[in-house]
Design brief:
It is built from two helices and twelve strands. It is rod-shaped. 23% of the residues lie in helices and 36% in strands. It is an alpha+beta fold. A hairpin with a 2-residue loop joins strand 10 and strand 11.
Length: 203
């Protein structure tokens, strides 16, 4: 093999190797650099939940103390649909906002949002359920026998609460001690057993 052939062979191998490396680099996955100035929003559990309101909570990491605007997106579905007023923060901090005029016994979804001049960060979507409606008292029937007072309370939902003296049976809050209901249950069971015995003997 003469020198010209050797030179051509070496150059060919070098060219093939160069293009192979270029193709391999071009096909590699491109990973963009992380922007250190983008705020980080984190959703936190809601608190102070009532029948018609709740306090939404969040946490924002404001890198380099860049001016940051935070708020919550919320709604009765995962599509959200509502936003709380924007708050301006210039530092890493927790933040919160109260949502009102909610429906009782209803699930609501929400997430924290943070934004600065670089971009927007969205936290995970959480949910909470508002409290149920307390029963409305229609009437109170009080019966006193000796030193014991039994109070039967009827509500619009036909729930009956029976309690004795020493428990709170008036007003909008009804607290019934289940242990006080056992004598009534025992009496009812005895009546049922007596009736069953009488009917069995007749048959």
């Amino acid at each position: 093999m003469n020198n010209k052939v050797k030179t051509f062979f070496i150059v060919s191998i070098a060219v093939v190797a160069f293009f192979s490396m270029s193709i391999a680099q071009a096909s590699a996955t491109y990973i963009p650099p992380v922007n250190q100035n983008l705020p980080v929003a984190t959703t936190i559990d809601a608190s102070a939940i009532t029948q018609t309101s709740a306090l939404l909570n969040g946490y924002v990491i404001s890198t380099n103390q860049a001016p940051t605007t935070v708020w919550f997106e919320w709604g009765p579905t995962l599509g959200l649909g509502y936003s709380t007023p924007h708050q301006n923060l210039g530092y890493t901090s927790t933040f919160g906002d109260v949502v009102e005029n909610l429906q009782p016994e209803t699930r609501y979804f929400y997430r924290a949002v943070a934004q600065n001049s670089i971009g927007t960060s969205v936290g995970a979507t959480y949910f909470f359920t508002t409290a149920d409606v307390a029963p409305q008292i229609i009437y109170i029937n009080t019966h006193t026998q000796g030193n014991r007072q039994t109070v039967a309370i009827k509500t619009e939902s036909n729930y009956a609460y029976v309690c004795e003296s020493g428990t709170n049976c008036s007003g909008s809050v009804v607290i019934a001690d289940d242990s006080n209901c056992w004598p009534l249950v025992i009496v009812l069971v005895l009546i049922i057993l007596i009736l069953a015995t009488i009917l069995t003997r007749r048959i």
